[in-house]
Fold each of these.
Amino acid sequence: MKIEQIYTGCLAHGAYYIESKGEVAIIDPLRETQQYVDKAKNENAKIKYIFETHFHADFVSGHVDLAKKTGASIIFGPGAQTSYEAHIATDGEEFNLGDIVIKVLHTPGHTLESSTYLLIDENGKDHAIFSGDTLFLGDVGRPDLAIKSDLTKEDLAGKLYDSLRNKIMPLADDVIVYPAHGAGSACGKNLSKETVGVLGDQKRTNYALRADMTKAEFIKEVLDGIAPPPQYFAKNAQMNKFGYTEFDTVLKKGNIALTPEDFERIANQEGALVLDVRTEQEFVKGHIPNSIFIGIHGGFAPWVGALITDLQQPILLVVPEGKAQETVTRLSRVGYDNTLGYLEGGIESWKSVGKDIESIESISAEELANRFKNDTITVLDVRKDGEYRSEHLEGDNVVHFALDYLNDNMNTIDQKQSYHIHCAGGYRSVIAASILKARGYDVIDIAGGYAALKNTDLPKTDYVCPSKL
């Protein structure tokens, strides 16, 4: 028996490759599936099953493409409805894989069809659970993502309580836990950085598995502090339920080198968004007018999903050399399938033919301190709410909202003002600055973010002041 976790840091997502006696099961595959096909071929094995723990909201799964490539059966838990061929399992149903068995444990709560897969080894022993978004290390899945459900989040939280206590907690302490996500995922609140654990540890340390916890207490604690889901979550869940364009087609369309002239022509004809994925330092120094920045080196796909509201938006790319295919791939993981090409030769080729370049003013923390004392300026802090509550600059001219909700706050920003923008270290502030600049706002980036600002003598507080403009 072989179990391999294939972890993707940008999505904080774990897919699983399970093999026994030449038969393979893939659990929660990524959008790009050739890696699983190649792996099975190298192992002289055949992919027999594709298990989905639920209709994922935070990424587009590769189950449909992988089934077409391999002939493997797609397995969902009870109650799932799809527009493509899939086997909808019953609670307790068992699937033979070589010498092992994978048993379906229906665990509704995160979503109604959510299921945990129990691996029973060749000796008949419960070996591991693949818990999807039902149980994470340190947390449990958020109960507010069901597709078109008439149940409230409180109803789903109650179902999750029952699922955990009736299906998972009775299992032995030495059962290994393989969750779908780790720290950084928006599918829970406080996920551990660890990506593999054992159930006994979770029973002892996970707040949601306290033995003396009532259902009412569970519902309150699970729902407390949940931020609204990113706008792309519901759209990705629909793609996972109803199908999508083949990944190979998406990649072929998007991974096309364009001359500056063709790049500009397509941008104008198609109304394409120019997405620059270089570093924030490079973008600040020079970029194509009206382009926006979301760096490939950061939490790229989730930020795209949070901030670009139309999955069908035509996109043109400015990428570091050799990063075009990776960028198109990572966009497709969250459902952005309408990439139309990338600028061949990058920003240098754009400049070489005399096309316009713009920049963003970027100042040091020390320079902001001087301006803060000597002038009436507005500072915009785009860190998350928890970061802001921990510590922030003090003053009536300090405005805060998280970058995640920039689009929701556009009507509160005064286009007649200049905004000095900071985050924690510089990545998110340049994203915000690029979007605001493209929409006609006057912005100044604070290099180094709050990490640099906290070393100045600017007034700071850990008290949450009402945001003002």
Amino acid sequence: MLKIISKDFSELTTDELYAILQLRSEIFVVEQNCVYQDIDYKDQKALHILGYKQGELIAYTRIFKPGDYFEFASIGRVLVKKDQRQFKYGYDIMNASINTIQKAFNETKIKISAQLYLKDFYNTLGFNQIDEVYLEDGIPHIAMLKD
């Protein structure tokens, strides 16, 4: 069972921020073998959704209100630590993110830029592809929208 909390950037402790950046680098740079600029000055506008298991950060997203990333509310940097994926925590962190967008921003329309191989996962959460496949940092992505 995940303990999920949300925090504004200014509420994150130095240790929490370090854990977030370490895990994002572990997955998006090292595991996916993708050199890209993860630290993008968007974290300051985001609400950070952190999923802990036995005190360790193992799942994470960042969410944005409409206009701060896309024209609609959005979810990004979705991740679950590799050795924890078999427990399906991706659903828990995404559902918490969707619920937080509804509560914090009073929004139900959510846009994401999803890695193509995760299309079915996002479909089960109510997201639908709205555009053609495009490359982002060398990885096939699709725009998806949840109404």
Amino acid sequence: MRELSVRRAWDGIRQSAERIDTATPGDRDRAVDALRAFAILGVVLGHWLVTALVADGGTLHTTSPLQHMPWLAPISWAFQTLAVFFLVGGHVATRSYSSARARGTPYVRWLVARLSRLFKPVAAVLVLWTVTATSLLLSGADLDTVRTLVKLALSPLWFLLVFAALTAATPLLTRLNPLWPLAVVLHVDLLRFGLGAPQSLGWVNLAAGWLVPYTLGAAWTRGELDRPRAGWILLIGGTAATAALVIWAHYPASMVGIPGSAISNLNPPTLAAVAFGLAQCGLALLLRDRLRRTMRRPLAWAVVAFVNLSAMTIFLWHQTAMMATTATGLLAGRLPGLHTSPDGLGWVASRLMWLPVFALALTVCWAAFRTYEHARPAGRTGRRRSRVVRAHRPSSGAAALERRHV
């Protein structure tokens, strides 16, 4: 009986996946969605693996296994995937803007439509954490603990602000050569690391550093990166430059920030982080054809479609899911891999076992807040549309994916 139920459930999943696959327009570049899903999930898993909340008496403070075990730096190479997200974002935004211009859509209307998809889900995060922080402070919680939790919960917002600024500037960036922002990053690092300029100058790279993959995405739209040669140049050149900067210029090997480290490759982006991003972008471009073939499989495409439809919800709530698990776990005491110091392989093994629990907590957050990522129907037309959505949910999901390019 149990095997029959499992088989029926599996058949239902497969049929739904096939309907989504059939409803997806044939001219959609599924590799773009696959790369975006990879980038989002890479960031989520990276944060869950390299961020540790250590319970010390009545307080919680953040640390990282990379601080205690620097030889684990390759983990950051696998999961620091923001450059791929900006590559895809630049490609989709410039393509969308070109289409809007061809249709005669005003710039302001185009921009409002795109930014609303980014920032509507943010309101729920801000409200919940405002209430949570206030409640914790009124209950006498340690101020440093509250600051740590709020900082972790809201840390994804810096990324959205940068992405929104680049999106707003898309009309000015459609023809910008990526070498120009790369040159800015090079000179900023030369000034602050080689000539003693103030370290605050590095924040110029917060825009310039992410402009590099974003404008590469625009070059992709223009067809300048269609040949495999472009991908190989970016991959080999970026890898060689990153290795040289780490070995001879003594940039950190980790591509994410480490608490207590004098230099972070990410906050703000350094030349090493940008060079590493170029290598990632090259690899992403080389994988496009293979991803397109893989995405012809209905189940693989259904998973990618789901992640894309829920991208902002997943991104905004993944830190909250981890912290909710950590806070709940305190009721059972100080648990390995959850509240202990990440100073050995035992912690790594324990943390890996907590990942499914984090995923479950994130699923709860997704179920509670996913509606903020999608516009609610209004009026008679909205009610009619809701009935259509309920009657044809898989097809409407594919249609929603076609409309959304966050």
Amino acid sequence: MIHTYSGETISFEIKYKKRTSTGIYIDVYGNVEVHAPKGTPDESVLQLLEDKWDLIQQKSKEKKDRLLGPQEKVYEHGESFLYLGNTYPIQIHQDINITQDYVVFEGEKLHIYVKQLEDEKIKQALKRYYYQQCKALVEKSIQSYKSNFKVKPRSIRISDSKTTWGTCDSKLQLTFNWRLAMAPLKVIDYVVVHEMCHMIHLNHDRSFWRLVGKIMPDYKEQENWLAISSWKMTV
């Protein structure tokens, strides 16, 4: 079926089942399904769709975009990048007098100052900014949560890992992925808490997860954000 609302059109399928309530489901391809009790009037289904319209559009687009995978970035005015969980456009400035390329977040934009207008220079300046921000944010988060632990990390390092968001070794050395600067602050806090809990429990046994849950009861929400958004965390 097709329904138009607020100037937008959505395709959906209704499946009538033995159930007592109506629910909306979006599959991995972004297709919308309505599961409704047998005999549910079409008007009730359409009303539910309209009530949830913005959320349906958002979730459907997210799943369709995810199927496409990371899109190749262009380093031009207006291209967008994630920072602290939100997407912002970049504004590129050439300044031949600077000694090092740098980035400033201001006015809802990532301003990139470079000596040479080259894609690689712009990319490296942005990446260096994420490294710097990640280190500062991680250190601040560790300070916020240190009262929950009787031990403290011996060192903190920022890495370019392709497989992990953070690690803790037996020497209490913590390492974090620079891409975390693209995540919301609460997600950064979760990764920090996760690795700090490894200072007590080096594996992922029940005691470890109990400690994580005690310090951050909503940690599963942060895990979920990483699970569905990590593919977008790229430069």
